[in-house]
Amino acid sequence: MKPATRHITAKSSDVCEYCGQTCGDDTVLRDGHKYCCFGCATLDQIMVDGKLRLNEVPVAFRQYDLPEIFDKAVEMQTATIYKIRVHAPAIHCSSCIELLEDLPEIDNRVRLCRVNFEDRSVEVIASKEILLSELVYLMDQLGYPPHFDLKGNQRSGEIKEQRALIKRLAVTGFCFGNSMLFSLPHYMGLQLANDLFFANLFKVLNLALSLIVLIYGAQPYFSSAFKAISVRKSHINIPIAIGAIAIWVWSVYEIISGTGFGYFDSLAGLIFFLLAGKWFQSRVYRKVSFDRSLHDLLPMTVRIRKNNGLENEWKSIRDLEVGDIISVKHGEVIPVTGELVGGHARIDYSFVTGESIPQRVNEGEKIYIGGKQTGGDITLKITVKPDPDSVWSAWKTPKNEEENIHWTHIVSRYFTPAILLIAVVAAAIWLWIDAGKALFVFSSVLIVACPCALALSAPFTYGSIQRYFSKNGLYLKASELIGKIPRINHLVFDKTGTLTENGSAEVTELWNHLDDEETRVLKSLSVAGNHIVGNWMNDYLQNTTLTNLDKVEIHPGLGVEASVNGESFRIGSANYLKIPKPVNGTHLLVEVNGGVKAAFSFANKYRKGLTTLLNSLGRHYKISVLSGDNDGERSALMDQFGGFAHLSFNNKPEDKKNFMNQLHDAGDSVLMIGDGLNDQVALATSDLGFVVTDNMSGFYPNADGVLMSDQFEKLPLLMELAAYSQKVLRTSLIFSVMYNLLGISFAVTGHLNPLIAAVLMPLSSITVVGLVTALVSRKAKQLQLK
Amino acid sequence: MKVIVILISASLLLALIFLGLFFTAVRKGQFDDLESPAMRMLNDKPGLTSKRKLNN
Lengths: 786, 56
Description:
A: Alpha-Beta Plaits
C-alpha cells in the first residue's frame, strides 16, 4: 500500500494557499502552488477542476472486497448500504474535515461522511455500488489512508465507555454540589440546622444523593475492586471501595442513631475527584492507533494468471496452490515466496533487511515475501504453500511482558492492611479509655485514610507529561510507559533512516570536469535510470534542466548509457565501467566518449544536530548503534560522536535481537530507536521501542512510541522530562503520606468531624492534582518544550 | 422559613430537568467530539456543503 502523504505541520514561514495554516518542511507543491498538506492540495484542485481523477484500484486494496474481511471491516450493513468507522491519523486541520465530509460530492455513491477530529476517526455511510476497496483507495488518494480495526466493533465500545464516564461525572458532580449546600447550614451553625424539621429534611436529601453517588457514580470502583479481590490481587481501587463503604455505613449509622450529620458530602467529593481524574486521563490521548492490522501491509489477494497470461483472476492468498502463477506490478509488496518466471525483478528488501538499494533477481531465482518490486511487472511461480497466519510471525515476536505493576498498586498492597491495622489498634486502645467511642474511632480512620492522592498522582503526572510529549512529536502507546523511561540506561539506535535522513544522501564530487551541457545529460541519465543512486544525483543537480537523449539503454542495477549529439555517455558504478573503484562504498562515475570525466561518492546524510543530540544523551546513557549496512560509514559516524558503547555493521534482524538479549543479560535496560519495519524484532526485544518516522499513520506493530523525525533533536529533552516524573511522583507520595498522617491523627484521637473531613478530603485531591501539573509544566518550561 | 422546602424542590426539579437534557445530549453524541464542530463552522463553501444530506 502506498504510504500516507507526509502530513505534519512544522515551523516555516510559508503559508498554505488553501487553508492559511503555516506549512512545514513537508509542503506539497502542485502546479506552482504551495499547500500545507495533501488534503488542501486536493481540495484546491477539485475547486478548480471540478472533479478528481483516480486510477485503477491497486492490488493491495482488493483484500477489502473479500467477504471475510468486508464483514469484519464494516460496522453495519443492509442490502444497499454499509457503514464503516475508521481511524485516519492524517487528519490535522479544518480543511481535512471539509474535504472528507465532502466525499459525497466527490463520489455520489458515498452517502455521508462525518469526521471526529478529537480521535481522528471518520464514519462513512456508502451505497453498496461503491466497493469497499474503491472507497479505501479514494480516501488513500485524498491523503487519508484509513485504518481498520478488524477485531470487531471495539471503537463503538470505546464511545460507550466514554459516554458513561461523562454521565457519571456529571451526576456525581451534581450530587457533590447539592450535598455540600445541604451540609452548609450544619457546618456554619445556622439556626436552620437546629430546626428539627429542616435538619431531618437535609439528612434525608443527603442520604438520597449519597445513594446515587454510591450506586451509580462509584460503580466502576466497586466492580474493579471486587474483580481484584476475587483473583486475590491488590489494586488501588480496593482501599477506595473500602473507604467509600466505611463513610457511607458510618454516616447512615450517625443519622439513624441521631448522633450526627454524616459524611455524605465528603463521599460525593471523593468519588467526583476520582472520576474527574479518570476523565482527564482518557481525554489526554486518543489520537494514535497502533493496532493496525497486518492486512494493511500485506496484500491478501493476488492476481492469478490464466490462459497464458491472457486473463487475470483475483484470488485470496488462502486459496493459492503450489505452482500457481501470479503477477506482481511495480510498487507492490511480494505477497508470497516464489520463483521469478518473467519480468525484470528489482526487489527492495528494505522492510526485511534494512538495505535500501534494490536487489536484482534473475529468472528462476527465489523472491521472498515482504520485498517490494520496483522495476515493472513480474510474474512469480509459487513454490511454497503460503500460510497467511504464520507469514509475519517472525516479526510478531511478542514483547517480553514481565508483569508491569504500577507502583501505586504496590503501595496500595500495603496501604489497605496498614490502615486496617491502625484502625483496629486505635479502636482497641479506645475500648480501654472510652468504650463508647471505639467504634467511632475505628470508622473515622477508615473514612479519613484516603488513597485518592495516590490514585490521582500517577494519572495526572503521566497524563500531563504525555501531553507535552505529543505536543513535541512523541506519541506513546500508553501513558504508563513513561514510568519505564527513567529506568532506561542504554540507548540503541538503528543507523539507516534513524540517524540518517531517509531519501537523501550527502554527495561529494571526487572530481568533475563536466561542462554545463554534459551536466544536463548526466541529470537526464540519472532520471532515466530510475535507481536510488540516480535519484540522489537528480536531487543534487536540482538546478540543472533536463535534455533529450538518444538511444537510451538501461542496465538495471548497473548503469545507463545513451548517446547525445554523436557523443556517447555511460554512467554507473566502477563495476559497470570495468575500471578500479575510486572509493569504497556507493559511487557514480560519468564516462564521456570513453574517458571518465566525473566521479561522485554518496554517503548517508546525518540528521540535523545529531552531534549535539548524541553528546547530550551520552552524558546520561550508554549509546550503541546497529546498522544493516556495510561499515563504510564507521568513521563518519565516529566523527558525529566518539563515545559509542558498541558500534556494529552488517546486522541482520536476528543479530539485532541477539545483541538486545546480550544487553539484557548484562542487566541493561534498553530503549531501541529504529525506523520501523526492519527493526521490528529489535523493537520487540528491547525494554522500550520508539520508531522515528515522518509518517504518523505508518504501521509499527512492536513500537511503544512514535517520534516525528522533525522533532528528533528534542529526544534528550523529552527523556529528561520523563525522568523527572519519578521526582514528581515521590513529591506527591510524600504529600499524600503527610495528609494521611494528619487525617489519621484527627481520627485516632477521636476528633474527626464531618467539617474536618469535608475540608481535608477535597483539599488533598486538589493539591495533589495542582502540585503535579504545576511541577511538570515548570519543568517543561525549563526545558523549553512547547 | 417553610418556603425553603418549595425552593429546594423547585431547584431539584430544575436540576433534574437539566440532567435529563444533558443525558440526551450525551446520548446523541454531542460530547463525543468537542473539536470538529468548531472547525466545521468555519468551512465557507455553501455550494458544496448545503447540498449535503446530514440525516440519513
